[in-house]
Automatic annotation (TrEMBL), chain A:
Its EC number is 7.1.1.9. The keyword Zinc does not apply. It is a multi-pass membrane protein. Keywords: Electron transport, Membrane, Respiratory chain, Translocase, Transmembrane, Transmembrane helix, Transport. Belongs to the cytochrome c oxidase subunit 2 family. Pfam families: COX2_TM. The chain crosses the membrane at residues 6-24, 49-66, 86-111, 132-151. It is found in: Membrane. This is cytochrome-c oxidase. Residues 65-160 form the Cytochrome oxidase subunit II transmembrane region profile domain. PROSITE patterns: COX2_CUA, COX2_TM.
UniProtKB/TrEMBL annotation, chain B:
It is found in: Membrane. Residues 23-567 form the Cytochrome oxidase subunit I profile domain. Residues 583-606 are annotated as: Disordered. Gene3D superfamilies: Cytochrome c oxidase-like, subunit I domain (1.20.210.10). It is a multi-pass membrane protein. The keyword Transmembrane helix applies. GO terms for cellular component: membrane. One of its GO terms (molecular function) is cytochrome-c oxidase activity. This is Cytochrome c oxidase subunit 1. Coiled coil: none annotated. Belongs to the heme-copper respiratory oxidase family. Signal peptide: none annotated.
Length: 354, 606
């Protein structure tokens, strides 16, 4: 299949060049007066092409929105995410409004005022009023956006830690994630890479009593509706903890602890049942089935059926396997979460075992 | 002072008229700005071929992940065993593609070429202030290109930590194999590059300030020269900071210092580094990295201003507003670097400040875009290939610039940071736009550089396929970015969630291949026209600026006799006489800068 495509592309390129050389031969001056400077005929043709191009551009943008806007992430699964999406849609709307008008004017003028013999251009060098208008309009619009954006930014980034807040450490290394819960004392034990030894993969300080009840897992479980504060730590290089479904991201920096907080609002089960996700998963499974057929024909393994799960992924280049550094996230009701966490091993139990 | 200098240069020029230059003096170690500009252009184009070829390789991998291609087998050696691309070479290709395109093609190839060609010619100078320094500048660039290309043949692979080479990944060979010798060569190459850029920039600044011919006040300069001048200033301010970042990184790598490294456990051992911060590196890098965007873009905008005005047969609209926005962009560009670091872990308050400054920079950019559009209004547009590329530039500059409003907003950046949305944004606004500027410049000043014309019909084919292709590549990319698809992923198949994006990636790759292929038409046109193109007349585009008053055949010192004197600004296109019966010069819709003010002409403020 691929080879066929490559052959087709090469063949098409061959034809292109053959045609090009023909065009070039034809374009060779018939009379030696050809100056290679655009003449009246060129201006006409190219001006019309400008108009055709903007029509193409409009259609292409329209097609992209029609066909691809369904790729936009599902409704945010975190509290601040709704706000985020709203700001995003306002900005996108504004951008597309300006885009359509300016591209239209640019190409329409290119068509309308295409060169003609004996036409005279207007000597028009300055207009302070116009300059003022199109300075002040962006100022006002941008001021609005800045203010809106900064209020949201403050809300998102200034997390207040309350009694209810669940503190979780996200620990990154090449090429996987771990999550550490603070346990019953609600305080994470001290840690440093210099303590890493054997099963103590996250370098917890064994002399720190706060660390004893910490729980280290490789699947992140979050209770619905409870604010979570993540503390990020990396053991080797820069990583970035990207939670697209929760509209949240923070770099993970070796040598320092970074943080980000959000409140999950949709459980995994609810998200799976949402109309968006049902359609999406169905579509993906169809694609996977098609692909599986090809794979089987080539004597390879079939692809698994896909079921949606939230995930955390690495979004800062971190090495050869950067593309596959992920952790499953499960958002569930408070009681399910409590049940799950009870079953997990504490750090003390882990070290005692070995 | 400047008058004295001119006289010396003049005598000098006369003395050497008959001097026969050897081949080496003329073509290799030349101190003539016109030859140096050609050297920059050709080196830049060669680097461009390498950079674009790399992008095609990794686009193939992205469209058909893990498939076997004979071309990988042929080009990638042990990294393309059985024609399947290795993940580490994927990252190396992305890294070197970025480095080459940003620095070697769009900084040196664009600004180096046209600053060298146009500054002396358009301000009426015999040559650069220091021809020797200019020559050194080119050869440092050449050495740096050779070192960068040689790093491709290192056994452990070239640098592969992304073009931003963030430590610790770039500092530790244990973390990725490209951070071995390949990374050392990258840093050495960049050191030469920065030295070259600084020598060049200082020369441009001094030349513009001191060697303007009689009557050429700053407010009569063509906008090209303004753009090159301000670009050079930004370069002098910000490139040294990149050098310091590179040197500190080199020390961390080779001498065990801890500027950027702390608390690292890798491959089963704790490293001794303590107390450094990768965020410090990010600050230093982006202190250059962001102004760099404008170092790339301003020359392209300068070229566009000139080409649009000439071909619209109209003065550029709002000349002073254009200068003001160049200056505003230059100033703001040095205080916005933090918008690359909203989620780097720096203080959120700092993020607020950078959001504010970043969205401010949209204002002068918007003014420029509106001024271009107004310049077209009621013009008499001559659709030469250079003009088409200039209009194309305004189009991609708007499309790419608008999405900057999303990325510059710290809140919105959170979820699209480092996704394909960013890739789409910066490729349109700085990659494609600056390349269009480069092409516009080449088509427009080719007659000045080589004394021949490029074929216009091939130019049209080149433009239209490129215009459609680049939107085809980068517009859909916004949507896969908003789907949360991270950049720099070797394959997206590890996440079944992204399976439905695969078709879009195929579409993008097909557009990319077509667009890259049509650049061969340009190359063919370029090389063929150098030798066999139609002979150019002295002023083929009927332009007002001084470079078109020099003879077609290049001479040392540019003007055979005395230097021209300037009486007006460079935008007197279609200016009418007092009683509005005809143009000021009857039958000619432009007044060259060296024509004195006529009796029947109204004086403008320039």
């Amino acid at each position: 299949m691929t080879i066929l495509l490559v052959i087709i592309i090469i063949a098409l390129l061959g034809i292109t060049f053959w045609q090009m050389s023909k065009i070039f031969k034809l374009s060779k001056p018939v009379n030696s007066n050809d100056t290679q400077i655009a003449d009246n005929k060129d201006n006409q043709t190219q001006g019309k092409l400008m108009l055709a191009f903007v029509v193409f551009l409009y259609l292409f943008m329209f097609y992209s929105f029609w066909e691809y806007s369904r790729f936009y992430l599902p409704e945010a699964a975190s509290e601040h995410g709704t706000d985020y999406d709203q700001l995003m849609f306002i900005s996108l709307g504004l951008i597309m409004f300006v885009q359509i008008i300016t591209q239209g004017l640019l190409h329409w003028f290119s068509y309308k005022y295409k060169g003609e013999k004996n036409k005279k251009a207007l000597f028009y060098a300055d207009n302070d009023k116009l300059e003022f208008i199109w300075t002040i309009i962006p100022v006002i619009v941008l001021a609005g956006l800045i203010i809106y954006g900064l209020f949201s930014w403050n809300d998102i980034m200034n997390v207040e830690e309350t009694e209810d807040t669940l503190v979780v450490e996200i620990y990154a290394y090449q090429f996987d994630w771990r999550a550490r819960y603070a346990g019953e004392d609600k305080t994470l034990g001290k840690a440093n890479v210099r303590f890493i030894e054997g099963v103590n993969q996250l370098g917890l300080d064994e002399s720190d009593p706060y660390g004893k009840d910490d729980i280290i897992v490789n699947e992140l479980h979050l209770p619905k509706g409870r604010p979570v504060l993540f503390k990020f730590r990396s053991q080797d290089v820069l990583h970035s903890a990207y939670f697209p479904f929760f509209r949240s991201q923070m770099n993970v920096v070796p040598g320092m602890i970074t943080q980000f907080g959000f409140t999950p609002t949709t459980t995994t089960k609810e998200m799976r049942k949402s109309e968006y996700m049902v359609d999406k998963v169905e579509n993906i499974n169809e694609i996977r089935k098609e692909r599986s057929k090809e794979l089987v024909a080539e004597g390879e393994m079939e692809l698994d059926n896909y079921e949606f799960d939230y995930y955390l992924l690495c979004n800062k280049i971190c090495g050869a396997s950067h593309y596959n550094m992920q952790m499953k996230i499960v958002v569930e009701e408070e009681e399910d979460y409590n049940e799950w966490i009870k079953k997990q091993q504490t750090f003390q139990e882990l070290t005692a075992q070995n | 002072m400047s008058v004295a200098l001119e006289h010396n240069a003049e005598n000098h020029a006369h003395e050497h008229h008959d001097h026969k230059q050897t081949f080496i003096e003329k073509y290799i170690f030349s101190t003539d700005h016109k030859m140096i500009s050609k050297q920059y252009l050709i080196t830049g184009l060669i680097m461009g071929i390498v950079g674009i070829a790399m992008s095609i390789l990794f686009r193939l991998q992205l469209a058909w992940p893990g498939e076997s291609f004979w071309i990988f087998d042929a080009l990638l050696g042990k990294f393309g065993k059985d024609g399947v691309m290795d993940p580490s070479i994927y990252l190396a290709l992305v890294t070197i593609h970025g480095t080459i395109m940003v620095f070697f093609v769009l900084t040196a190839g664009l600004s180096g070429t046209f600053s060298n060609l146009l500054i002396p010619l358009q301000i009426g100078a015999r040559d650069m202030a220091s021809g020797f320094m200019n020559m050194i500048s080119y050869w440092l660039f050449f050495i740096s290109s050779v070192i960068m290309l040689s790093s491709l043949f290192v056994e452990s692979g070239p640098a592969s930590a992304g073009w931003t080479v963030y430590p610790p990944l770039s500092a530790l060979p244990q973390a990725i194999s490209g951070s071995g010798l390949g990374m050392t060569l990258w840093l050495v190459s960049m050191t030469f590059f920065i030295a070259s850029s600084l020598l060049g920039s200082l020369n441009y600044i001094v030349t513009v300030l001191n060697l303007r011919t009689k009557g050429m006040s700053m407010t009569r300069l063509p906008l090209t020269v303004w753009a090159f001048f301000v670009t050079a200033i930004i370069g002098v301010v910000s490139f040294p900071v990149l050098l310091s970042a590179a040197l500190l990184l080199l020390m961390d790598r080779s001498f065990g210092t801890s500027f950027f490294l702390s608390d690292i456990y890798i491959q089963g051992e704790v490293l001794a580094y303590q107390g450094g911060s990768p965020v410090l590196y990010e600050h230093l890098f982006w202190f250059l990295g962001h102004p760099e965007v404008y170092i790339v873009l301003l020359p392209a905008l300068g070229i566009t201003s000139e080409v649009i005005a000439t071909n619209a047969r109209k003065p550029i609209f709002g000349y002073r507003a254009m200068i003001a926005s160049i200056l505003a962009i230059a100033f703001l560009s040095t205080v916005v670097w933090g918008h690359h670091m909203f989620v780097s872990g720096m203080n959120p308050f700092l993020g607020s400040v950078f959001t504010f400054t970043t969205l401010l920079i949209a204002i002068p950019s918007a003014v420029k875009a509106f001024n271009y559009i107004t310049t077209l209004w009621k013009g008499n547009l001559q659709m030469n290939p250079g003009m088409l590329f200039s209009i194309g530039l305004v189009s991609t500059f708007i499309t790419g610039g608008l999405t900057g409003i999303i990325l510059g907003d710290s809140t919105l950046d959170i979820n699209v940071h480092d996704t394909y949305f960013v890739v789409a944004h910066f490729h349109l606004v700085m990659g494609v736009s600056a390349l269009y500027g480069l092409f516009a410049g080449v088509y427009h000043w080719f007659p000045k550089m080589f004394g021949r014309m490029m074929n216009k019909n091939l130019g049209y084919v080149h433009f239209w396929i490129t215009a459609i292709g680049s939107y085809g590549v980068f517009f859909p990319m916004h949507f896969i970015g908003m789907a949360g698809l991270p950049r720099r992923y070797y394959t997206n198949t590890a996440f079944p969630y992204f399976d439905d994006l695969a078709n879009v990636n195929v579409l993008i790759t097909v557009f990319a291949i077509i667009t890259a292929a049509v650049q061969l038409v340009f190359l063919y046109n370029f090389i063929y026209s150098i030798f066999y193109g139609k002979k150019a007349t002295q002023n083929p585009w009927e332009s007002t600026t001084l470079e078109w008053t020099t003879p077609v055949k290049h001479i040392h010192g540019n003007w055979p006799g005395e230097l021209p004197t300037v009486y007006r600004w460079s935008y007197d296109y279609s200016k009418r006489n007092k009683d509005d019966s005809d143009y000021v010069i009857p039958g000619q819709d432009y007044i060259p800068q060296n024509v004195p003010v006529q009796d029947n002409e109204e004086e403008t403020m320039h």
